[in-house]
Design brief:
The protein is an alpha+beta fold. A seven-stranded mixed β-sheet has the order 1-2-3-4-5-7-6, sandwiched between helices. The longest helix is centred in the C-terminal third of the chain and has 12 residues. The radius of gyration is 14 Å and the shape is globular. It comes from Photobacterium aquimaris. One of its GO terms (molecular function) is acyltransferase activity, transferring groups other than amino-acyl groups.
């Protein structure tokens, strides 16, 4: 595998990321008001994560690694490279249960839903009511 470059995405490249989401994570869609970090190899973008500002907070969302690159620590490396972004504002994520350990290794701690800030509690409840099994987490390095 060729080396992977991790970097913040230039917003002009959003269509590339949205094609990636359409192919591998149809519920995800990058928006212009989000900050994106990607990992790219000679084969193109292989992973991405979005940061959505919600008032004075940010929500890490839409983590995606192309299936053929999974289980190779690429998501961990992406989160490590995105640490400057994660540290800019209080950062939360709603992790799938099977990814809890991944986020814990990156410095996130598991919360009870009632520990979330009010704006995020409502969003979390909406996501859970739609059938997603999620765990609220907060970055606490």
């Amino acid at each position: 595998m060729s080396p992977i470059r991790y970097q913040q995405l230039n917003p002009i490249r959003l269509p590339i990321i949205n094609k990636l989401y359409k192919d591998f994570y149809p519920a995800g869609k990058a928006k212009r008001d989000e900050t994106l970090w990607v990992g790219e190899s000679q084969q193109g973008v292989i992973c991405c994560v979005r940061f959505k500002c919600i008032g004075e907070l940010q929500l890490l969302t839409g983590m995606l690694v192309k299936p053929e690159y999974r289980n190779q620590k690429i998501a961990t490396q992406l989160l490590q490279h995105a640490t400057p972004q994660i540290q800019q504002k209080p950062c939360y994520c709603f992790a799938f249960k099977e990814l809890e350990a991944l986020y814990q290794q990156a410095g996130f701690i598991t919360l009870q839903p009632q520990q979330l800030p009010h704006d995020l509690q409502q969003r979390f409840e909406r996501y859970c009511h739609s059938g997603k099994k999620l765990i609220p987490m907060h970055y606490n390095a």
